[in-house]
Amino acid sequence: MKKIKNREDLERVRKRIVKKSDPNKPCITISSGTCCRAYGCQKVTKAFITEIEKQEIRDKVEVKTTGCLGFCERGPIVVIYPKGIYYQRVTIEDVSEIVTETILNGKIIDRLLYIDPVSGKKFVNGEEISFYKKQMRVLLKNNWLIDPNKIEDYIINGGYTALSNALFKMTPEQIIDTIKRSGLRGRGGAGFPTGVKWENCRRANGDLKFIVCNADEGDPGAYMDRCILEGNPHSIIEGMIIGAYAIGSHEGYIYVRHEYPLAVKNLKIALNQAREYGLLGNNILNSGFDFDIKISIGGGVFVCGESTALIASIEGKIGEPRAKYIHTVEKGLWNKPTNLNNVETWANIPIIINKGSKWFSAIGTEKSKGTKIFSLVGKINNSGLVEVPMGITLKEIVYEIGGGVLNGKKFKAIQTGGPSGGCIPEKLLDLPVDFEKLKETGSMMGSGGMIVIDEETCVVDLAKYFLNFILDESCGKCIPCREGTGRLSEIVERITSGKAKIEDLKLLEELSHVVKDFSLCGLGQTAPNPVLSTINYFRDEWETHIKNKTCPALVCKELIQYYVDNGKCNGCGVCKNLCPQKAILGELKNPHSIVQDRCISCGICHENCKDNAIILSSPRGKN
Amino acid sequence: MGIVTLKVNGIEARVDESWTLLEALRFLGVEIPTLCHHDGLTPYGVCRLCMVEIEEKSGTKLVTSCLYPVKEGIVVKTHTDRVVKGRRMLVELMLARCPNSKTLQDLASKMGIENIRFKMKNEDCILCGLCVRLCKEQMMSGAIGFIGRGEKREVVTPFRTKSEICRNCGACMYVCPVVELPCRGYNPQGELCNSCLRVVPECADEYGQIMCYLESCGSCVKKGEMNELVKT
Ligand SMILES: Cc1cc2nc3c(=O)[nH]c(=O)nc-3n(C[C@H](O)[C@H](O)[C@H](O)COP(=O)(O)O)c2cc1C
Ligand code: FES
């Protein structure tokens, strides 16, 4: 590929690409993020190519692999353009039918359409599906249209216009001013105003400055950054070049965890293509501005997402945080001024430059602007990635986008902010989602995890899960985080096994506050949030665990007991054969019974009994 | 050399602008407990005992005084309820980890901790990192370092074998706050000692004088009974 020489040349190249492509030519796009790969989308893609070869229609139809479309539980998703027909859960068996019926005969295959679980309605066009309809997909829109390995796809959709405008029509100060006015705040969790950070870094002393993209994304269950990295890497690169120009930096890093191999691969390809096109490297678009980006691959440690630990890790040191009394914008990477932003923050930059700060700041609430991507998971009908305007209520997310709680169960709470966040109960569902409002509830935005829990989830068990995650991921440097979370986990363990006294709850709270106040970095300072917020909203449930040794949600293994309902058991013997403990006794065709001493509450009998004759109860000791 | 003015516990004071807050506080004679600090080493900020409260417009915040550079006009409170409660909890946590450290036992008695609410362990290191820093920064050796993350963190020589650069100087032992055993008290080893908080401290019998090893501690006089002891 020839280098793009200047601003006009970029437009010429864009026109040439537009001319070459025919918008009416049928195009089969297959969502190929990591999530869909797990469903076998690569085989589906191969099958499409083979089928098209077989039917000798290579000139008539295009096959394209894109990034993740967000509705991950329905993958692999195949969208057929120009009509935008949306097929979900496509397997290799469906491929030849799609080619023959839909591509050649123009028919829609009913079986592959999405049926709304609530209303029972079928949808042909993806945009119409309730999961997408309420969303505002600004960042994720291009994931539908772009093959991440083709820079041309990004350029045809307006890519690098923002860069060319920034370089040739704006001064660095104007760019910073635009970002400041837009009200964009960091998407990595803390929500620091991005424009202010850039300004501080620009003003910091020193010729050598660094730009870093935080693509560490360690929250369990969160993958919005991965989705952009894999599906639209050029948007991040473009954002970083604009940022570098505004701040006055010539060297950038993308810190990405090695657990994201596809993201690394797509990033590398995208960086190389941008270099070949002259959009990255020396003298970008002949503007005289030099900037290049290196990829730094991390070991996948949660704490390495923290800014100072991340910097240490890039430097090749142990990824441990330090106190931030001297800010990284003054002394960061190799003690030089460093500007660190999250993936999603960077991806917002070209959009703001293109559409203007007014457009951006019109979306959202007073202090939180723009859209935010959340990963909506847990006990919910439609799970996946959702991009919504700030200020949308939790209720809209759960019921309109998410389609309500799975299997018609009762909603209990929504956990936001991952291991640093907290649970928000039903009574607060009308809460508009923004940085401040979430914080007021004792939770936080975090990087955007949202886990819906229903009546069958035990909040104590949930708090225990996150606590143990933190305990595992704490770097161990400071005492409150290392010793404190260890002891918190010990106390919660006592509670879930029925060995706790009521004083333990007081100790739990007291220790939680100390860990929050005295820890060195954000990891420890937020670690007790899941505990404190669940105690705040579900104190009853904690107390019942302690006082009555009962787990109302029937989850905590050491507080529940399985027994056989004699009236229902027909003595089929299935449970007896499956029990790993040989704890079930009984003659064929006669009611069985469970020897409690041997039972480890694994629940296999309960899951496999066709007559629902295995009953769960808490506390232990009855029957 | 610039001077900045700060307010410490209600009293205005002028200190060198290049100091950390801890240096300033110690210079002013405010007693701040520390375990990971040493005047000759780079501050590390992990024991968290040195944390103090700073008042700002938006409310108060806790800062790590051993790392915090003094600033003009800051309002510092060193012994607020929140700070004292937190410090006690931290000592409780550390003592529960390493009950066989005299430094920790003394600190606990000094702070009036009379009950450890956690299950006692028997570790011999609180991971304050003094030895690691001393070995590297003052002995110019770097024979020891940290390995492992979280609860698995420990100080070892590379590959846990005898280090080739270790000169057996013993400096690591010299700075270690845990290496010194506690005095023999009422309670069995591995428990909270508290002897010096009791009416007749065992250590007084042992050393035959009031001023025991607890440097300026004097906790044993706290309840007034010690005076009786002196008379007899
Ligand atoms: C324990 C911990 C983990 C973090 N992990 C991430 C992460 O995975 N990705 C991220 O962008 N920010 C993470 N952060 C936040 C970063 O420290 C930092 O605030 C952020 O990257 C700044 O970018 P922003 O201003 O664009 O949000 C983490 C913070 C803490 C305390
Ligand atoms: S002395 Fe400041 S943290 Fe230990």
How would the blueprint of this fold be written?
The complex is a heterodimer of chains A (623) and B (232).
Chain A: H1 7-20, E1 27-31, H2 34-38, H3 41-54, E2 62-66, E3 78-81, E4 85-87, H4 92-104, E5 114-115, E6 122-123, H5 130-133, H6 151-156, H7 161-169, H8 172-182, H9 194-203, E7 210-215, H10 224-231, H11 233-247, E8 251-257, H12 261-276, E9 292-298, H13 307-314, E10 338-342, H14 343-355, H15 357-361, E11 371-378, E12 384-389, H16 394-401, E13 411-416, E14 422-425, H17 435-440, E15 449-454, H18 459-473, H19 479-496, H20 502-518, H21 522-526, H22 529-537, H23 539-547, E16 561-564, H24 574-578, E17 584-585, E18 593-594, H25 604-608, E19 614-617
Parallel strand pairs in A: 1-2, 7-8, 7-10, 8-9, 11-15
Antiparallel strand pairs in A: 1-3, 3-4, 5-6, 11-12, 13-14, 13-15, 16-19, 17-18
Helix pairs in contact in A: 3-4, 7-11, 7-14, 8-9, 8-11, 10-11, 10-12, 11-14, 18-19, 19-20, 20-22, 22-23
Chain B: E1 3-8, E2 11-16, H1 21-27, E3 51-56, E4 59-64, E5 75-77, H2 81-97, H3 102-110, H4 130-138, E6 145-147, E7 154-156, H5 171-175, H6 202-207, H7 225-231
Parallel strand pairs in B: 1-5
Antiparallel strand pairs in B: 1-2, 3-4, 3-5, 6-7
Helix pairs in contact in B: 2-3
Bound molecules: flavin mononucleotide (FMN) and FE2/S2 (inorganic) cluster (FES).
